[in-house]
Write a structure and sequence with these properties.
Layout (H helix, E strand, L loop, with lengths): L10 E3 L6 E3 L3 E3 L5 E3 L36 E2 L5 E3 L6 E5 L10 E5 L2 E5 L5 E3 L10 H4 L5 E2 L1 E2 L1 E3 L2 E3 L2 H6 E5 L11 E2 L5 E3 L6
Antiparallel strand pairs: 1-2, 3-4, 5-17, 6-7, 6-16, 7-15, 8-11, 8-17, 9-10, 12-15, 13-14
Length: about 200
């Protein structure tokens, strides 16, 4: 390997300014230019940007959204009301029920303290009223729901009525009087089949 002189008495010409400077005061820039210490410019950081990776958009250990099971809607006490004597139409008061017109729903009475095999809940039948039996209201197949209050021989379709009332036609029994409320405490309306 060759040995170089120290150059303590030598002069050098700057590649940047073309001026003469002592050789010992010269430095080499990142691009190979020999310049005086006073002219030295470091390499711009923008010439070597840090590599950028894509933004993280996925999470570790993700799970798909869970589909919530439909749950019964608790009705207020005695929320069933017969329409008129000899009619099978039952109006139901259920503020903010969220039921869609044409849905099939099942009515249930208050839940029992015991459960059936497999841990499923057991329910009583709604209380009998105005010639309508609770067992008929709690029919296992459910009833097709029509939203809105049934009054004066037709369905009231005002926004208030549709949001707070619905009615159905009970299968067999007819009412004996007019506008009799019943059903008792703890009744609910919900899906035909409840699942955990």
């Amino acid at each position: 390997m060759p040995k170089y002189a120290s150059g303590k008495h030598s002069k050098a010409i700057s590649d940047r300014s073309g001026l003469e400077f002592p050789y010992k005061e010269m430095v080499k820039e990142w691009n190979g230019s020999l310049v005086h210490m006073s002219e030295y410019e470091p390499k711009q950081p923008q010439l070597e940007p840090k590599p950028m990776s894509a933004d993280a958009i996925s999470l570790a250990d993700i799970r798909p959204d869970r589909t919530e099971n439909a749950v019964p809607y608790l009705l207020s006490t005695n929320s069933f009301k017969t329409y008129e004597a000899g009619s099978r139409i039952i109006n139901v008061t259920a503020p903010g029920h969220g039921i869609t017109n044409g849905d099939t729903k099942r009515f249930r009475g208050a839940p029992l303290a015991i459960t059936a095999a497999g841990g499923s809940f057991q329910f009583t039948n709604p209380a009998n009223f105005d010639g309508i039996t609770g067992a008929n209201i709690a029919k296992a197949a459910g009833y097709t729901i029509t939203t809105g209050l049934y009054a004066s021989g037709s369905r009231d379709t005002s926004d208030y009525s549709v949001a707070n009332f619905f009615h159905f036609t009970v299968d067999t029994y007819t009412s004996t009087k007019c506008e009799v409320s019943g059903g008792g405490i703890g009744c609910s309306v919900g899906p035909v089949t409840l699942s955990a």
